[in-house]
């Protein structure tokens, strides 16, 4: 997907009109502009690295949330409320 997005953005930078690209690739102009804001000027490898970092960040957020739940449960047990 990253390769496709970068390819579509490269077509636009080469002079293709947004409306034509959206029609050709079956997407909305809103999607195109969201991609442009997020991936504009990136190479495929940079986009892949961004995706990997976003995935890692989501995993770390889940782990933190789980740790907070365990901490709260232990706090309740320590108070004698179980």
Structure commentary:
It is a single chain. This protein has four helices and no strands. The N and C termini lie far apart (48 Å). By secondary structure, the chain is mainly α.
Key traits:
single chain; 82 residues; mainly alpha; 4 helices; 82% helix
In short:
With 82 residues, this protein is mostly helical.
Overall average pLDDT: 93
> How many whole angstroms does the radius of gyration measure?
21 Å
- Approximately what portion of the residues adopt beta-strand conformation? under 5%
Q: What oligomeric assembly is this protein in?
A: single chain
Please give the count of helices.
Answer: 4
- Total strands: the figure is 0
**What structural class do you assign from the helix and strand content?**
mainly alpha
Helix content: over 70%
How far is the first residue's CA from the last residue's CA? 48 Å
Q: pLDDT under 50 segments (min length 5)? A: none
Order of helices and strands: HHHH
> Can you summarize the main beta sheet?
none
